[in-house]
Amino acid sequence: MYDPQVIYDYLISAGTDWADKKAAYDLFDGNTKSVLADIKNNAYGKSDAERTSNALADTDYLFHLKEKNEAFAAYLHAQVKYDSARALADARRTQASTRRAEAQYTGMQNG
Q1: What is the pLDDT along the chain (111 residues), one digit of tens a residue?
Q2: End-to-end alpha carbon distance in the chain
Q3: Which of 17, 56, 69, 94 is 20 to 30 A removed from 24 (C-alpha atoms)?
Q4: In this structure, what DSSP letter does residue 57 have?
């Protein structure tokens, strides 16, 4: 059964979830350089290259990257869910349109 309100509500829910997860990922992604710079400023090393190397291996930086990757995966899953819901809505709309056309055609043959 094609219920536009149910489909609309689901698309709003899936779209909002997608947007929230994209915003979370974007926040992690946008802060990556700042996190690295902060860790690098406090890292041990005689040269810039040594401090950078130590910062890249720091557990706080690695934890940030892990969280960023988890946020990215959640964002992608939410995007698949939203895009799939949109495709299903389009298919249901097409199906309903086809049924109406069939009913009209059948009515013309019987009339």
Answers
A1: 668 888 889 999 999 999 999 999 999 999 999 999 999 999 999 999 999 999 999 999 999 999 999 999 999 999 999 999 999 888 888 888 888 888 887 777 765
A2: 27
A3: 56
A4: T
Contact 64, 29 (CB under 8 A): no
CA distance 17 to 53: 37
Helix (H), strand (E) at residue 63: helix 59-110
Residue among 2, 17, 11 nearest 87 (CA): 11
Backbone angles phi, psi at 99, to 5 degrees: -65, -40
Scored b (16 or more CB within 10 A) or e, 78-98 reads bbebbeebeeebeebeeeeee
Inter-helix orientation angle 48-56/4-42, to 10°: 140
